[in-house]
Amino acid sequence: ESTLAAAAQQSGRYFGTAIAAGKLGDQQYTTIANREFDMITAENEMKIDATEPNRGQFNFSAGDRIYNWAVQNGKRVRGHTLAWHNQQPGWMQSLSGGNLRQAMIDHINGVMGHYRGKIYAWDVVNEAYADGNSGGRRDSNLQRTGNDWIEVAFRTAAAADPSAKLCYNDYNIDNWSWAKTQGVYNMVRDFKQRGVPIHCVGLQSHFNSNSPYNSNYRTTIQSFAALGVDVQITELDIQGGSATTYANVVNDCLAVPRCTGITVWGVRDSDSWLGAGASALLFDGNGNKKAAYNSVLNAL
Ligand code: XIL
């Protein structure tokens, strides 16, 4: 096959990218994105600060630009993200307790209601677990509303759009030996046992020297899948752009039937949140295919 999306489709998977609304006028960018990818995530435009800048006043203009571009070009959309400690609007940052809990519920209903029936999978909760060795929750204003905030978010989401897959998404849950991975695994197992609606786990998979790819990644994907959820690689980038590591990631996903797709976090190195110098993506700053691109295409 000659594109990432077509190659992924051979095994029933998708290959996606993050898109920034402000770059939809860049023809080199849209040409590559349209040609190579079949799943789209808004890099920032569906986050809380973008979609509810004032409490109860929703703004979907930038999110809809990305959604419409994707659908007009025959692509599906992942929703990112509904409940998160980062990129909260100021009004939400200053809330706590029952007031914040209600605002979270209202936000999920407002955003999922707007996109009801249109989204392949939502990252319902993003980055709720702590870094380091605790294996426990991250301290945040949402966590301080009560430990049940995550399951409340998922139950709210299931009612707001019954057609979307509901994902828990996080970084540094790629390495099976890490406490954070085990903490999230235990939560997903508990949710499945108690019937809390959860359908997928998103492995962000931002690999760098502090959190490098490890060959136990396949065990992580297999272990989550064995709980009865899909696994999606949602924000892949690899600092330094190793073609070998990119191939390893693809091979590990393809080894697990419930690993349903891979999304890279940007198109060209110059589009990466890590900066062009990180060389973390599949196209260089001129839009040329890198060695990592060919490695991924061959592995798919
Ligand atoms: C990043 C975006 O790429 C940046 O443009 C923005 O300034 C900050 O957020 N984990 C996530 C993504 O879930 O939403 C983050 O995206 C990267 C880390």
UniProtKB/TrEMBL annotation:
First-level EC class: hydrolase
Superkingdom of origin: Bacteria
Name of the protein in question: Beta-xylanase
Ranges where the GH10 domain occurs: 1-299
Lineage: Bacteria, Bacillati, Actinomycetota, Actinomycetes, Streptosporangiales
Catalysis performed (reactions): Endohydrolysis of (1->4)-beta-D-xylosidic linkages in xylans
Keyword Transmembrane included in the entry's annotation: yes
Active-site residues per Swiss-Prot or TrEMBL entry: 235 (nucleophile)
EC number: 3.2.1.8
Keywords for the protein's UniProt record, in alphabetical order: Carbohydrate metabolism, Glycosidase, Hydrolase, Membrane, Polysaccharide degradation, Signal, Transmembrane, Transmembrane helix, Xylan degradation
Keyword NAD assigned: no
Family the UniProt entry places it in: Belongs to the glycosyl hydrolase 10 (cellulase F) family.
